[in-house]
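Slack export, channel: ligand-projects

TW: morning all. Re-posting the request from yesterday since it got buried. We need the structure predicted with the small molecule present, not the apo form. The ligand is zinc ion; the SMILES is in the block with the sequence. No rush, but it would help planning for next week.
GE: picking it up
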Amino acid sequence: MSVLLHLCRTCRHRETSHHGGDRGYTACPCCRGAGDIDPEPLLVQTWSFPLWEVEPLHRPGAQWNAGTTHRLELCACARCVERFAELEGDLPPHG
Ligand SMILES: [Zn+2]
Ligand SMILES: [Zn+2]
Ligand SMILES: [Zn+2]
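GE: finished. pasting the full token output, ligand included:
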């Protein structure tokens, strides 16, 4: 599945959030702390076999299992929500 992630500008690790809470398992000192997270989300696309179709984009805040034992929650910051809306041609729900 395709996801929106944020890059740490110091170490270029991909982070799911702007907070250190879900990064406790990393060995990286900057990512264990606040990090230096690029506010602009990065679209990471994945493709499904056998047709190489781009897989649907995960909604910000959705649970995402990145093939690890950790289930991550995707970032749901304003930029991720906006980017998601642009990509999906869809406006975020406003009630
Ligand atoms: Zn790092
Ligand atoms: Zn970092
Ligand atoms: Zn975000």
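GE: first-pass observations. Residues 6, 41, 75, 77, 79-80 surround zinc ion (ligand 3) (CB under 6 Å). Helices lie at 29-32, 78-88.
TW: perfect, thank you
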